[in-house]
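User: These chains co-purify. Model them together.
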Amino acid sequence: MKLKSVAVGFILSFVTLTSFGQDTGCLSTLALANEEFNAGRFFGIPSLLKQCLDNGFSTEQKVQAYHLLTQAYLILDDPIAAEDSYLKLLQADPEYIASPEKDPIDLVYLSKKFTATPIFTPHIRGGTNVSFVRTIHEINTEPYPVGRSNGIRPALQIGLGVDWNINDNLSIGGEGLFSFKSFKVTKTGLSGDDRQEAIERQVWVDVPIYVKYRDDFGKVRPFGYVGAALNLLLGSTAELRTENVSPSLSETTGSQVPTEGPNIKLGYKRNLINRSILIGGGAYYKVGKNFVFADIRYMAGLSNLVKESENYYNEDGSLSTTIPRYRWTGDYYRLDNLSVSIGFVKPLYNPRKIKRANTKKVMRDISKDNN
Amino acid sequence: MSIVITTIGCDTASTIDPPDESFFLKFYGEEGNQKGVDAVLNADGTITLYGSTEARDVTGKKVKQLYLVNIQQNGQLVWQRIIDTGKNTTAKDIELTTDGRLVIVGDVENTPTERDIIIMTLSLDGSEISRALIAYDTVGQPTDETANSVTQTNDGFIVVGSTSNLELKPIKGTTNDIRDALHVRFNDDLTIYPSTWRRAHGPGDFDAGVQIIQISPTQFYFFSYTNTQTGDFNYSILGLGVDGETNSPDSFLPGIPGSNEILSSVIISPVQSGEGYVLTGITNTTSSTATDLFIVKLRKSLTFGATDYQFQKSFSVNLGTLKNVRTSAFALASSGFLILTNENSTGVQKFYLTKITNDGTLAWASPIIYGGEKDSSIGSVLELPDGSIGMVGTFSVGEDGETKMVFIKVNKEGKFSK
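Assistant: Joint model of the two components:
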């Protein structure tokens, strides 16, 4: 038993020391390479770094090593090797941005030939929302205006999306969101003082498409977007309640008489395909190479959700039971929606050489600094 | 932003017509029970609905009173008025006079089995102009009078209904005689017409007047139903002279042998539908309570015989066992007739709307049914100036079944659609 413990301890010590030895060795190699570079001895740097680049450098050390190699190749007038080294630098750190403040100008120039901006940036999101009824025509069974209030009710949404990045700041995004939405309409003054409540619950698939502008630098990166959405209303039910507040003149005397019942299916009275416009914004928070984000979005419905030909009918074509039972006929309305979501973004970085480098901006920046 | 919204098409009140202009269903009345019976289209385009409502009288007692509601053609309320007679009163008929007044009749309930008839003239805003009561008795005992309709004549009005007073006719009937058809005539100011006018007819044991139509100053057609001669109920048409006496045989009895035909409505058929008279009601075999529509069309000038028929038919529709026998007909501006009746084939009474052609053929493949989970009952049907159909009646609403006057406006196919 004792022998076994000693053996395990020996093995662990060997592994640890080997690893430490390699780390400290590559660290020394990196330091040595820097010294060689500063001493103007550029030719030996690639071979010096090769072993640790193949196996040994941490990501951060790789970035430093490829940065050094890129500079060395630029000085050695080997642009192909310099570009290869810079591309590998971007593969190690896709968020690396060369700047005249900290990098040699020829490296900054070189960097403009490359980008690591992801072509596609997928994300998942989820959160809560509230809906706002925008009445187009109020329809009720009363021959005079009645009191009305719209109540908001929180609901949930979850979805997937992807941004197609046009450049570092601009992208076109699309999403598929599965949403529950709900709202409440209360009407008062029916037949004098009767009261009616209708809570409608809906199931949606929203497909927004938008143009997004985002900051591309820093730990917290704000963004904003505008767009339009196709909204599929998959189902709808209504919970109805009508209260005969003063039934003193009816045969039922005494207190209030409520009329309640099971939820009413309204899906057949609703248009499946609807449209909206949207505006939103939020901020990304960088976590490693990925991001988490918070988003607030207002989606303004453009479509009347009500199938006008079905509004007065049951699904079988008979007069809607809701009319005599609850004295309820649905209004024509659009539905706006305010949502707050949090999500996770995994950029699919794609370091690559771009066909047409933009170096004018570098010159402008240098001129500005000199002035 | 508004340009963007417009470009991609936002549904707004300006892009979608307000549905109430074309179709709606609205309830009228406040607390308590209301009932809708009849409606007239006024010259100013408004519609006056007539029915009854529960209200508290001055002593706080719950009383059923006459109820008038004036609405726009989109159903919006213009005014409503309750007419207190001091007793439970049931609305029966409203007509628009040629000089722009309203005339209404109703039954005033002294006891559940003894009623009088009230007739009132009103201005178009519902203000009362005059009123009169039809209240008879036999040897000091009040008799039961009930109204069915009121008709304007060249010099006043005639109220048609029935009475349990069997002494208004010159010759008393058999011992089985229980009710006579009533046609009481008034001057235009609702003073009673001179006693030269005969007030009742009753060849059968049970006779009930439905409608009277003045053909000339000296000639009337009197429509009723009676169980005379055949032992079952038939429609009956009599010619009445200037004194209200018959000037025709009393054997003109449209109907089906072995079945009861109960007349409910009589309208004048205009030129475009073939001039004459359309009599609507129901029929059922004497061994069954299941009912069918029974419609008779007569030519304009009656000889009170078989040659008067343009058609006489039932329709093989099962209206069930009706809790409230009532039909209403309206001659369409184009041609044909709307027919509204109750139906109770499922155990819950509902509206039954259909359309027939000038020759009595059903014009719609299937009827239009309106109603709820509890009983409804029709009042009357009319065609509005835009060709849409208006129906007044009564719906039971809510868990407690409170009844409400209802007015339904639908398109010319009977649908809630433009």
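Residues 2-7 of chain B form the longest helix (6 residues).
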